[in-house]
Structures are given as structure tokens and as C-alpha cells.
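Proteins fold. Shown next:

***
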Amino acid sequence: MSLLVSMLAIPLLWWNEFIARGVMGFFLGGAIFAAAESIRVRADAKRIAHILCFAALALWALVVLETYLSPLHDAAYWLSGRISDDAGEWYIGDSDNLFLLLFIFTVSPITILALALHEQVLGGKWQRLSFVGDISYSTYMLHFPMQLALAAIAAHFALTPAAFENGPALLIFYLVLIGLGTLSFNAFERPMQSWLRDLLGKRSRAPK
């Protein structure tokens, strides 16, 4: 069902990319979780995990190749032009969305599923990076206020966008964001989670 809902959101991409990607990604994540739970208890789980890990590496190699040389785009452009002029014009206008959909429904789920199975079935040590998922909500809530703060600083000091459009600035931004996200998670989010669990647990155990 999650996969179906994710696919039903595809037409939204031509209306609002951000809403479409949010809906597709959210429900696709649920489908990936269900797939991982189903695969990890199978007798041939290790074989499937190895296949998916190889597939993920191959897909990312193709992503890098396409980024720098665009063989898939060139082939699709040539083929659509040979079909008809209308097909060629349609492809030119929608090629970005088509390749985005390919990435969302192939590279992303296979990569996430491969990482999950590598940890759960093949004994990978991805637990060390689990904190990135723990702080994801905090970083999501903090990234926009940080951008607003930077915009205010830029306006005050008459800085141009070029001051922020470089690798070091991006690296500093992410380091600060991860640091603040970690602090927020440990000092606020995790204590609130414990408090809410205790509160709900007490209510569920209370006599009727």
C-alpha cells in the first residue's frame, strides 16, 4: 500500500516538486522498511543482500557516469527524436522530472535497502552512523532558521550570494547544523521522548 501511495503521488511532480518528493519519499520509506523486514527473515537473505549491495554500487557508478557524460540522457534524447517530433519535444520538456523519478524509484530505495540489509543480515557496522538518523528531525527543524540567520547576516554586511556558494561555506554550514542538531536531540528531543513515553505509559496502566 505504501508503494502504491508513493506512485500515486507521481503526477504531483508536475504541480509542485517539493510536495511530490515529500509524499513519494515518505511512503516509499515505509515500503522499504516492509521490504527489509520481509527479506531479513528469509533463508536466502544473505544472497539477496549481496545482490542488492552490488546493484546499489552499480547504480551509483551509473549516476556518476550520467552526471559527467550523460549517456542515458543522450540516448533517450536520440530515441525520442527518432520516434516523432512531438515525442522529442515532450522529452526535452520533461527530461528532468523523468530522471528524478528514475532516481527516486530505483537508486534511492535500492541503496537504502542495501544499507539496511548490509547491517542486519551481513553484519555491517552502520550503527556508528545511526546518530545521523536520530538527529534528522532536529536538523530538519534547524536548517531553515539557520538559512534565515545567514540571510540576515548577508544583508547586514552586504554580502553577495557568491560568499556562500562554495565548498568551504557548505561544509561549515553542515558542521554547525549537525552540531546544533546533536545538541538539540540530546538536550531536548530525547528527554521529551522519555517524558512522553512515561506519561503515556502511566495513562495506559491507570485503572479504568
